[in-house]
Design goal:
By secondary structure, the protein is α+β, with helices and mostly antiparallel strands. Among the domains are: 118 residues, Immunoglobulin-like, CATH 2.60.40.3250; 167 residues, Collagenase (Catalytic Domain). The chain has eight helices and 17 strands. The strands form five sheets. A six-stranded mixed sheet has the order 8-10-9-13-15-14. A four-stranded antiparallel sheet has the order 4-3-6-7, with no helix packed on it. Strands 2-1-5 form a three-stranded antiparallel sheet, covered by helices on one side. Strand 16 and strand 17 form a beta hairpin. Helix 6 packs antiparallel against helix 7.
Length: 459
């Protein structure tokens, strides 16, 4: 019955003559100063390619990495995408200065009709793309894995607005749900989808999205949180405490995540995990995550999806993070919503001073107290309700503080962004990427729209 339901769903979703999906799995290894990529395997996924055949080239310039699929005979680029990686984040941590590690990654693209070469690029010190690795791919090679296992579950069509080739296909994967909690997962997935489409510009472009939900049950409810001694068997590998940050939740098991996701159409993925502790994460072009049971989960879902979907930078800088401080030499970030040039930002501004004044000193003084209280709550293992109350208090205070600023609605260049108090600037005082507010700034909205257009073919 499960396979029959899956077949019916996907026959409705895909046209009859669809191109297959090819996935190149790699190992990305290195340390803070070096990197190497090696081929793991090449896989034909069970479902057709869900991407837009009319927009194969990504000209956005976003991502810490990019890959190009180039026709081996003609040299023509057939497909390209910018993306970022877990490895790229890890190499900015203190651990990367002490040892080498390897992380799994995948490059997905439509099956080519002839041999191609896949080229992978990374950013150099000046944020320019330089080639890091390449691999020839012959679609007729017997080494390509073509056999697939039966689907472990059927995807749920949360919202279906048309052919995946001309829609953004968002897959909500579940983790940490037992067999008795599958109904809860579906309810959580529907709640998050509903929330996403109340936020501009997703609200105005809701008809350009399909939303799917998929999970498999786990034996014990929840996901691991090693800092408290909690370990769990996981469907996708998601856990807390990534890179030593108690709220940072990602999967380092790319294969487990991809092996489940491949049974639903997807361009982008958010992993919803069954936990109440505040947490989540997002990697551009890979996936995002959110703890479903937290009071702030609706906000975190949208914030982390902003990272994953549009490559938006974090604009906050007072919360603790796992990354080491940036070099004093500020290179212009590739992310669309932060800049190193406060006098000449890369976005259109209002008629305001540049850099733009805001109550920075008062904000930072208040945040020092908030972060100290936050750390004490975690150290004392206080109930999550107390952390949620602290966040509500914080947001109310910040909203009131900013409401008195003459530039509270202006687009300018406000110093303090990208985890740094000085040297980086954000477009507006408030944004989902800065505080726990309920709206994206104008620059972030425009950046999101451009990615929606890339996937749907709109101009």
């Amino acid at each position: 019955m499960r396979i029959a339901v899956l077949s019916v769903l996907l026959s409705l979703a895909f046209p009859a003559l669809a191109v297959q999906t090819l996935r190149v799995d790699v190992q990305h290894s290195g340390d803070a100063t070096s990197e190497a990529i090696a081929l793991d395997r090449i896989v034909v996924e069970p479902l057709p390619w869900a991407g837009n055949p009319d927009r194969p080239i990504d000209a956005s310039g976003r991502g810490a990495n990019r890959f190009d699929v180039v026709d081996a005979g003609t040299g023509r680029t057939l497909y390209s995408r910018g993306y970022s990686t877990v490895f790229g984040e890890w190499r900015t941590t203190d651990e990367a200065r002490r040892l080498r590690r390897s992380f799994q990654e995948s490059l997905r693209f439509p099956m080519p009709a002839q041999p191609v070469v896949v080229h992978v690029y990374s950013r150099d010190a000046a944020n320019r793309f330089v080639e890091t690795w390449s691999v020839p791919v012959d679609p007729s090679s017997p080494d390509i894995e073509r056999a697939t296992k039966p689907a472990p579950a059927a995807p749920i069509a949360i919202r279906h607005n048309g052919d995946p080739a001309h829609k953004v296909d968002l897959l909500i994967l579940g983790d940490g749900y037992t067999a008795d909690e599958l109904g809860k997962f579906e309810a959580d997935a529907r709640r998050f989808a509903d929330r996403l489409f109340t936020v501009s510009p997703f609200k105005e472009r809701a008809s350009d999205f399909n939303v799917w939900a998929l999970t498999v049950p786990v034996p014990v409810s929840g996901v691991g949180r090693p800092s408290t001694g909690s370990q769990r068997a996981s469907a996708t590998g998601v856990r807390y405490d990534i890179f030593g940050s108690e709220r940072y939740a990602l999967t380092l098991d790319n294969r487990a995540f991809r092996e489940l996701a491949q049974y639903a159409p997807y361009d982008v993925v958010e992993i919803v995990f069954n936990a109440a502790t505040y947490g989540g994460g997002g990697i551009f072009g890979q996936f995002s995550t959110v703890a479903a049971g937290n009071d702030w989960s609706d906000y975190v879902f949208v914030h982390e999806f902003g990272h994953h979907f549009a490559g938006l930078a974090d604009e906050y800088y007072t919360s603790p993070v796992a990354y080491t401080a940036a070099d004093l030499h500020r290179v212009e970030p590739w992310e669309p919503n932060v800049t190193a040039d406060g006098a000449h930002p890369k976005w259109k501004t209002s008629r305001v001073p540049l850099p733009t004044p805001w109550p920075k000193a008062a904000f930072e003084a208040y945040e020092r107290d908030i972060q100290a209280r936050r750390a004490r709550l975690r150290a004392d293992r206080r109930p999550e309700s107390e952390m949620s109350a602290l966040f509500r208090e914080e947001q109310a205070h910040v909203d009131a503080m900013f409401a008195r600023s003459p530039y509270r609605r202006a687009t300018g260049a406000f110093e303090g962004a990208n985890y740094e108090a000085t040297g980086y600037f954000r477009p507006q005082m408030q944004c989902i990427m800065f505080t726990r507010s309920d709206a994206f700034c104008d620059v972030c909205r425009d950046a999101i729209v451009s990615v929606i257009d890339l996937y749907t073919g709109a101009r």
